Amino acid sequence: MSNKRLYIQEVATRDGFQNEARFVDTEAKIELIDRLSACGYAKIEVTSFTSPKAIPALRDAEAVMHRIARREGVVYTVLVPNLRGAERALSCGVDEVNLVMSVSESHNRANLRMSREQSFAQLRDVIGVVKQTKVAINVSLSTAMGCPMEGDIEQAEVLDWMQRFADLGVHGVTLCDTTGMAYPSQVGALCAAARERFAALELTLHFHNTRGMALANTLAALQAGIDRFDASLGGLGGCPYAPGATGNVCTEELVHMLELDGYDTGVDLAAVLSASALLPQLIGHDVPSQLLKAGRRLDLHSMPCATADGLPEQRAFSQGA
Ligand code: COA
Ligand code: ZN
């Protein structure tokens, strides 16, 4: 059995909260992030420095970033769409900026209100500025495995965008399945090609569970040698500018599966489950996590309807026919 070290990156307070109708109070965000900091994640995507008109749910990014208690060993990253966002992020002393653009032209225009080339030109300027600091640079390529408006995305096109950013000296790239269109064989082929061509890049896979394939896609990525995954507490998540987008792969379900298979995720599953249990109260609705409802595989139950003599109670079985 493998004992391979994997790196889990929590995105609920960014990818999750950006999509929530109810504004999560700044104090509550800080409290949750501080709790997550103790769960063993490699990285936490705290918030995004986007236009407050585009993403009102994260309009308190500065306050959150300034006031969380940062724990040694955890990388605190933030999503940044443009130069203005990068300046705001740098003023908060982030460890990493996560720049974003889409591989598909339509999604880039819907999400960022500019063409891909305009995005690239802006992000090139951002990279120029950030490289003068010690802050790391990751680039998230949205819709890398399918676009809800354009359909299939050619693998070659994804690799070309990766090349353009690798040439600018970024530290990592995240391949995002923004609306859960990826399937395992596609993921395996893309990950193998990306790893072979960009061995020096820190590569992250970012799956959404829109069509129930996120865990299957994770296994395909693992087999292709990927060791770094974004995941979202409770399975929250979704892009407000991608039709039909829903939650990310659920952190507790991902960690549960990986631990059973003998991987070392670094993440404390019990602590993650207790944090996830707080979400419905925070956001005002139930969360997609099945593990939160079902419990871990070996969280055993007492016998249902046991009678004093230890036999199952007949009544329970005789009713419902
Ligand atoms: N932070 C704060 N404000 C910003 C900003 C940033 N990073 N970028 C732009 N703005 C403000 C501008 O100052 C301007 O404000 P004003 O109307 O008060 O003058 C307004 O937003 C519009 O600016 P403009 O440059 O015309 O941008 P836009 O309206 O074309 O929006 C983006 C472009 C990228 C800023 C915006 O679409 C955005 O933030 N998108 C985020 C998408 C996202 O996070 N999606 C989910 C994750 S994938
Ligand atoms: Zn996402």
UniProtKB/TrEMBL annotation:
Residues 6-273 form the Pyruvate carboxyltransferase domain. Its EC number is 4.1.3.4. Coiled coil: none annotated. It comes from the Bacteria. Keywords: Lyase, Metal-binding. InterPro entries: Aldolase_TIM (IPR013785), HMGL (IPR043594), PYR_CT (IPR000891). It holds the Pfam family HMGL-like. CDD domains: DRE_TIM_HMGL. The keyword Lyase applies. One of its GO terms (molecular function) is hydroxymethylglutaryl-CoA lyase activity. Belongs to the HMG-CoA lyase family. This is Hydroxymethylglutaryl-CoA lyase YngG.
